[in-house]
Each structure stands twice: as structure tokens, then as C-alpha cells.
Design brief:
With about 800 residues, the protein is mainly β. The chain has 13 helices and 48 strands. It folds into 4 domains: about 90 residues, Immunoglobulin-like (Sandwich); about 325 residues, no CATH class; about 60 residues; about 300 residues, Porin.
């Protein structure tokens, strides 16, 4: 007992032997903070933060402190435990660094940075090495700490927002093996993973690229936000540089301070680079961003003399509550302090957003080890970049003790227990499931995933269309699902319905056998890609104004299979029984058809060659959609089994998107359709018109589509061959206030096409597009909530006589769930 008492007294004595001294270093004349000033004292050396602040641990005895900063007079002072706060004012002096050879350049730091950029191919491990392999251990924590953070509602990560704003805690550990083959192809295999409170990992959080591997890139992603790289091609356009010091180690380094030039345009961090004096390679880096929260990032590299390369070794990122001011963007949204949102609104309440006081911080640590810088393996580019080992979630304690490179201390264990309790008590796993389902257009109700798109629609033809639909989920069966829907149009007074099943032949490879039957209506000359985008929208603008439909009863059987994670395919056989709503007849060999049966074989694909996928034991998960992507389909209608017509349809669509650091973006969609044979108008092509056939502009005001022709009237043009090009260029948002950030978009659309024999189509008159259709427009989005305004003007060969005939004015609606 006496030994325990002595030990307690010793610990108590040591705890009171040191105290914290806070302070700040500023310019004596301007009172501007001096970032990364060097403070040397008995216990070591520290650097000030970007706001000039610092914190020292000092003992009971008087300690001498030396403060230095390049271009300023070095001063010394004395402090002890009684010192509460220390404000240091440094006076600028003219002096020349003895350790740096000055050139004719006005700023010696610029000369060093320029040389470092020119030597990237000799210093960047991904450029200089033929390939490499390594393992990593990462720990990601969301925990309580004085002060708080929250994710605002515009975040695109539903899982992360739920964890931070409602779960109030998170802890995960991951061990992974990484490979790089020197050709730009990478792969990661997750060998072990632990996530407190969840039965299985939250994959889109677990695999999030919190810490960028390389700082040599033109830009890098940190917490899903792109920042300008301090050694990128546009480095001098985005940053100012200043030499602070030279380290006195076995391999000395220049300490270079960088600060963003145009924060309002391009996101940039403020920090320091340690550049090797011999090679100008990065040895170490530290960066910060202060505002409503405090973002801190540290990078450490390890030198391998046999390869003459500095390789990333340690990366840590922390977000804590700051002192206020500018917001910081992470997870596709913004982070701030206070409550989740003052008024959640209808969507916020639907998604479960409440007013919650924040008191959290986020921390991520990644350590690389077991390096192999001359591997013989080659990465298979057809595979998913990240794969989860089937045994990853069942690793033993011995595995974790062997692979942990950061101590899992008592606080971590306490956090794990607390998080486990919070996740379960707040039912966070269920909330994440619901929010992710809503973003894809469904709502889970027990074993049934309700299709939100079937609940309500409105069109000129059907009027209000109400219904119910969806499919069973894995709670019902792990081997198959049943799907159905039933809707009713109150204007046409007709029930529409469908019933089907999907048998899971191989879930991991997305191999499914599909059966289906439906009775519904379809738009004349529309194209539905088997592997088109499966996105949910609250409102389908074109559907509201479309009134040219036909009845269709479909019997179908098909097979889906992902050849690779990036190449998804489907083969379908179907019978379509068609009867007209409009007074339309197809004259085929002097025989008029208004009702006819078609027998199809259809093959479709979706190819996303640059998207990022995660392969789990249950199947592939899309982590990040990248462009370009391609969608295509081949259809053959055959005169067999009493099929009436024989024709072929081909369609292909290419989509590309260019995202820039200044948050502007440019989008392109190029689509071509071609048909040959006995083609009725119901299966020809239109160009996505979205202009009601009314005389006055005010009568045509509706909601603009995203990729439709806003000045092209419904039923004005049809084609059996056509090409369309849509171009959109969005300027960076105008930041008026936190909640008012309108976006200006310039739009240009073009279409050209033709029709082989118009005379065969009786009852519906239309034009062709052989002279080329063009329109240009503007959108001003997010003026009020998700609403904005759109204008477009029609010009060129199909320009009409009066201004009002060529002009459209509409609303835009962009609601992000």
C-alpha cells in the first residue's frame, strides 16, 4: 500500500511540475500574426500556428525562450510556471540568410519552389519508382472535446453527416496492403477492419481518402475537398512562398512557408514544406486552415538511400472547433460550429436533422510500413481499386496487436465503448441505411424498399398520378427479390401496374436473372437505356408537359452481369404489345397499323473506365463516379412468334465532366441514335424537347430539364437518326452569404437528324432536323432554396418569326437529399 501511495504522490508531483503557457507572435508594427515562427526553449522547439499562436509546457524553474523569424530580429525572454500569457512582438530587419544561395530572382523561395517543381519527376515516388508495395495502419476517430463542430446540410456524405451530427462519435481501425505498378494503376486490399458500433463497416466512410498519398500533384483531395497543390503547375498563381529557416539534421532541409493567394477562388492551405537541400524533395509538411473550425494536417516522409527517394511515412489530419470566421469544406459540404441547422425544414425533418449542440473533433492517422520499393507484381486495372478481404471484419486481437502502429490507449478503449453505446442507442446504423436509400429513391420499410418515384407524378395526360411500388430486400430473401407497383392516373382514369422478380445468381459479380410484366404508358419516340442512370429526382420536368403517349404491355426476361466493376451489361428478351392513344397509323407495305406486337432482343452496357469501386464480400460499391462514362444499347425487333416489324435501333451516349479547383465545372453530353428497318414512330427518336405548345411565354413557364431542349416544342421533330450535343459551363458560386450562393450556368445545345420516309406515318405531323437545331441559354440556380431561373433562345436554321416563339423562361429546381 505504501508503494502505491508513493507512486500516486510521484505522479501527482510530476503532473504539477509542468504548466501550459499560451502566447502569440506578431509583427511589432502591423500586429499581423507571424505564422510558423520558431520558439526554442529547454524542452525543445515549437512553431507557431498560422494565427501566430503557440503553447509551451514549462517547468517550475525559470526558462529562457528564444523567438526567431526570418527577416525579423531574434529576441529572448524568460518564463516560468507563473507566466500566464506571452505576446511577442518582433521587429522587421534587413538580413540575408547565410544558408541560402541567393539568385537574381526577387524572392529566393520562388527560385527553390520552381526548382522543386521541375524535379518532381525525380522526387515523386509515383514517378521515379518502377512500382512499390506497402502496408498501412489507419485510425479514424470522431470524439468529444471542448468546443464543437458539425456538418451542414449541404454535405453529400449522408453516412458521415449522420455519424457526426447524430451519432456524436465514431472509431474505426483499418490495416491494408497497397500496390502501385508505375503506370498510374493502384490497388488496395483491406486486410482487417474494426468499426465500433456497426455490424459491418460503413464502407463510404472507411474508404474515404482523408489523407492524400502525394503532395506533388497539381491538386489533392483532403476530406473530399480539392485543394491546390503547393508544388502544382499553377503553384505561383495560387501561393506565395517565403524561406523561414534551414534544419540542422543529417539531411538538412529548407523550411519554406506557403500561403494561399486567392482563397475566394481556389481552396488552398497555409503551411510549411521541408525541402531536402540536395534534391529539393519533400521531407515533411505541415498545413493549417483556421476559421469556424481548425483544420491541421501533418505529413512525414522516410528516406530510402538505396533508391534516393523520400517516401510518405505518416499522415495525420485533425478538425477541431475554431474561433469563427470562414467555413471549411469537407465531405462534399461544409463544417461549422453550433447546431446542425437552425431550421431543418421539410427535407431536414424527413432526413432526421435536429438542433444538436456540437462538441466533437475528427482525427485521422495513417502510418505506412513494410515497404517494398521493387515489387514484381502488376496491378489489374479491370479490378476494383479497393477490395475487402472476406475475413477482414473477423480479425483476432493478435492481428491488431501485431499491425497497430499507433498505441490503442485507454482513451481509445473508452471512446470505443462510448461510441458503441451511442451508435446502438441512437440507432445510427438504421438512420444511415434510410438516408442512403432515400438518395437512391427508396425508403426501407422492414423487408420492403418503397419506391419513392412511384408515389406521385403529374402530367398533362394523366393529371395527378398516385401509386405505390418497390421491391423486397435481403430481410425477405438473400437469394431473390420480388418487385411490383400499382398507380392510377386521375385524368385518364387508368390503372398502371407491374410485377417482377430478380434472382441473384451471383451477388458479388452483380449477376441477376430478371423476370417482369407491366402495363403502362410510354412517350412516343423515347429511348430508355437498359443501363442508363438510375437516379431519383423529386420532379421530372419533361414528364409534366409531355402528352404524346402510347399504351404498352411488356413481358420480359433478362440477364444482368458486371464483366468488371466498371463494365456493367444486360441482355433482355421482351414482347411489347402496343396500342395507340393518339390517332396514329403506321403504313407498312400499304397496310395500316395502329396496334402491333414487337419482339425484341436488347443488349445494353454502362462503361465507367475511370470511376472508383470498392469490392466487398457482398458485391461492388461505387465510391467515386469519374468521367468520361459511356452508355450504349443495341435493339433488334424481329418478325418471329407473330412479331409485326423488323428493325434495328442503336444508341450510344458519352458523358464528361471537368471539375476545377475554383468550383467551376464544364459538362458535355454527346448522344447518337440510329435506326433502320420497318420503324414505327413510337420507336423512332426525339431530342428531349421541353417546350409546351402554347402561344405566350407566360403560358410556357414550367420547370427546366437538365439535358432537354427548352425552346424545342413537344412533337415538333422526330428522327430515325440523330446526334445531340449538350454543353454546360457553371461559373464558381457567387458567395453572397453562408446560405445564399447562386450559380450561373452558360448552356449551348445542338441537334441534327433526319427521317427516311415521313409519309409512312399518318395522324401525327412533324419536322426533321436535317438542317441542325441550336439554342443557347443561361441558368441562375439556387436563388431560393433549390429554385432558380432558366432562359434559352432558339437560333439558326429553325429560328421562328417572333421573339416569343424562340424564347423560353422557366424555373430550375435542384434539391439535394
Amino acid at each position: 500500500m505504501s508503494k502505491l501511495v508513493c507512486l500516486f504522490l510521484l505522479i501527482t508531483t510530476l503532473s504539477f511540475a509542468q504548466s501550459k503557457v499560451n502566447g502569440r507572435v506578431i509583427d511589432a508594427e502591423t500586429s499581423e500574426p507571424l505564422a510558423y515562427a520558431r520558439i526554442t526553449f529547454k524542452n525543445g522547439t515549437v512553431l507557431t500556428n498560422i494565427d501566430g499562436s503557440f503553447e509551451l509546457l514549462v517547468g517550475k524553474e525559470v526558462d529562457e525562450v528564444r523567438i526567431s523569424y526570418v527577416g525579423y530580429e531574434t529576441i529572448s525572454t524568460r518564463i516560468n510556471q507563473d507566466t500566464k500569457y506571452l505576446q511577442i512582438k518582433l521587429s522587421a530587419v534587413r538580413e540575408r540568410l547565410q544558408t541560402v544561395e541567393l539568385s537574381n530572382a526577387p524572392n529566393p523561395a520562388d527560385s527553390l519552389i520552381s526548382k522543386a517543381i521541375s524535379r518532381k519527376e525525380l522526387n515523386d515516388p509515383e514517378e521515379v519508382l518502377p512500382g512499390f508495395k506497402y502496408k498501412s495502419y489507419s485510425k479514424f476517430i470522431v470524439d468529444n472535446e471542448g468546443g464543437g463542430i458539425l456538418l451542414y446540410a449541404d454535405s453529400t456524405s449522408a453516412a458521415m453527416k449522420t455519424i457526426v451530427n447524430e451519432g456524436r462519435g465514431y472509431l474505426s481501425e483499418k490495416v491494408a496492403s497497397h500496390s502501385y505498378d508505375g503506370n498510374g494503376d493502384t490497388s488496395e486490399e483491406v486486410l482487417g477492419v474494426r468499426t465500433a458500433g456497426f455490424k459491418k463497416p460503413v464502407y463510404n466512410v472507411l474508404t474515404m481518402g482523408v489523407n492524400p498519398f502525394s503532395l506533388y500533384k497539381n491538386d489533392y483531395s483532403l476530406y473530399k475537398t480539392d485543394y491546390a497543390g503547393p508544388l502544382g503547375k499553377a503553384a505561383f498563381k495560387n501561393y506565395d512562398y517565403k524561406i523561414l529557416d534551414t534544419t540542422r539534421t543529417s539531411r538538412p532541409a529548407y523550411v519554406i512557408y506557403f500561403s494561399p493567394k486567392r482563397e475566394e477562388i481556389v481552396a488552398g492551405l497555409e503551411g510549411i514544406l521541408y525541402l531536402d537541400t540536395e534534391t529539393l524533395a519533400i521531407q515533411k509538411a505541415k498545413a493549417q486552415l483556421l476559421g469556424s473550425v481548425k483544420l491541421e494536417v501533418d505529413y512525414e516522409y522516410q528516406y530510402f538511400p538505396d533508391h534516393a527517394v523520400w517516401f510518405p511515412k505518416l499522415q495525420t489530419t485533425t478538425i477541431r472547433a475554431g474561433s469563427g470566421g470562414k467555413e471549411i469544406a469537407v465531405f462534399g459540404g461544409t463544417v461549422g460550429i453550433g447546431t446542425v441547422q437552425q431550421n431543418p425544414g421539410i427535407l431536414g425533418r424527413l432526413l432526421g436533422a435536429d438542433e444538436i449542440n456540437g462538441d466533437l473533433y475528427l482525427n485521422s492517422t495513417v502510418i505506412h510500413y513494410d515497404f517494398d520499393l521493387q515489387p514484381q507484381t502488376k496491378v489489374k486495372v479491370s479490378q476494383a481499386e479497393i477490395r475487402i478481404d472476406p475475413d477482414a471484419i473477423d480479425r483476432t486481437q493478435s492481428f491488431w496487436k501485431q499491425n497497430r502502429k499507433v498505441q490503442f490507449d485507454d482513451r481509445d478503449e473508452a471512446t470505443e465503448k462510448k461510441v458503441d453505446s451511442l451508435i446502438k442507442s441512437q440507432n445510427i446504423e438504421r438512420k444511415i441505411q434510410v438516408k442512403q436509400a432515400i438518395t437512391s429513391g427508396s425508403y426501407p420499410l422492414g423487408f420492403w424498399d418503397m419506391d419513392l418515384g412511384k408515389i406521385f407524378k403529374f402530367s398533362n395526360y394523366e393529371g395527378i398520378r398516385l401509386g405505390f411500388g418497390g421491391k423486397t430486400n435481403d430481410q425477405f430473401s438473400q437469394n431473390f427479390n420480388l418487385n411490383s407497383y400499382l398507380t392510377y392516373g386521375f385524368k385518364d382514369e387508368v390503372f398502371k401496374y407491374g410485377l417482377g422478380s430478380q434472382i441473384y445468381l451471383n451477388k458479388r459479380n452483380h449477376t441477376y436473372l430478371n423476370f417482369g410484366f407491366s402495363r403502362d404508358i410510354d412517350e412516343i419516340a423515347s429511348v430508355d437505356y437498359l443501363k442508363g442512370r438510375n437516379t431519383f429526382s423529386i420532379l421530372e420536368p419533361r414528364f409534366v408537359n409531355t402528352n404524346n403517349y402510347y399504351n404498352i404491355r411488356t413481358f420480359a426476361v433478362g440477364l444482368e452481369h458486371k464483366i468488371t466493376p466498371r463494365l456493367d451489361t444486360q441482355l433482355r428478351f421482351s414482347r411489347e404489345e402496343i396500342w395507340q392513344i393518339k390517332n396514329y397509323n403506321y403504313n407498312n407495305n400499304n397496310q395500316l397499323y395502329s396496334d402491333y406486337d414487337l419482339h425484341f432482343i436488347k443488349a445494353g452496357f454502362l462503361w465507367q473506365p475511370f470511376s472508383k469501386y470498392l469490392r466487398t464480400p457482398q458485391g461492388d460499391v461505387l465510391l467515386e463516379k469519374k468521367f468520361p462514362q459511356f452508355t450504349g444499347q443495341l435493339e433488334q425487333s424481329m418478325e418471329i412468334l407473330e412479331g409485326d416489324f423488323n428493325f434495328t435501333r442503336i444508341g450510344i451516349k458519352a458523358e464528361h465532366e471537368i471539375l476545377r479547383l475554383d468550383q467551376s465545372r464544364t459538362e458535355f453530353i454527346l448522344e447518337g441514335n440510329y435506326a433502320v428497318g420497318d420503324l414505327p414512330l413510337t420507336h423512332a427518336f426525339h431530342s428531349y424537347p421541353n417546350n409546351p405548345n402554347r402561344s405566350r411565354i407566360s403560358q410556357r413557364i414550367s420547370v427546366a430539364g437538365r439535358n432537354s431542349f427548352e425552346t424545342m416544342y413537344f412533337n415538333e421533330f422526330y428522327s430515325d437518326r440523330q446526334v445531340m450535343l449538350h454543353m454546360r459551363h457553371q461559373l464558381r458560386p457567387f458567395i453572397i452569404s453562408k446560405n445564399f450562393r447562386p450559380e450561373l450556368v452558360f448552356i449551348s445545345r445542338h441537334a441534327i437528324g433526319d427521317f427516311t420516309d415521313i409519309a409512312k406515318h399518318e395522324g401525327i405531323s412533324f419536322n426533321t432536323l436535317e438542317n441542325g437545331f441550336s439554342e443557347a441559354g443561361l441558368e441562375l440556380n439556387k436563388l431560393f432554396g433549390g429554385f432558380g431561373l432558366s432562359t434559352a433562345y432558339r437560333y439558326g436554321a429553325y429560328h421562328l418569326p417572333t421573339f416569343k416563339e424562340n424564347f423560353s423562361l422557366k424555373f430550375t429546381l435542384q434539391v439535394q437529399l
